[in-house]
Amino acid sequence: MTGEGGESACWAHLVDADDARPGSGVVWSLPRGGDLDGNLVHLRPGAVIDPHVNAELDVLIVVWSGSGRLTVDGVARELERGVATVVPKGAERSIAALDDLRYLSIHRHRDTLSISPR
Length: 118
What we know:
Strand order of the largest sheet: 1-2-9-4-7
Number of helices: 0
Distance between the termini: 23 Å
Number of strands: 10
Structural class: mainly beta
Oligomer: single chain
Largest sheet: 5 strands, antiparallel
């Protein structure tokens, strides 16, 4: 999956390319070159972003529409339109869509990818 301009989204490898729910992925990205990276992510019902850790940056997640579940370090939080939360750096997180979930993922720009399984 790629963001705007054909650049690979920083989390794109976390959505299973063989997922039976076509249409999951980044639908918009902030243009590169600024101080922030941001993606509008769409997850089809039942799609899951597997547990992973971002060791470098806090990430702001803002739900645009739909519902889902965000699990951070084993603690689940229900997601629905208007919910905003910060995932602290070093925390393990996963996201599951209960229905068509769209959310913004925003963090400070970084030069290299540093998400890894815990």
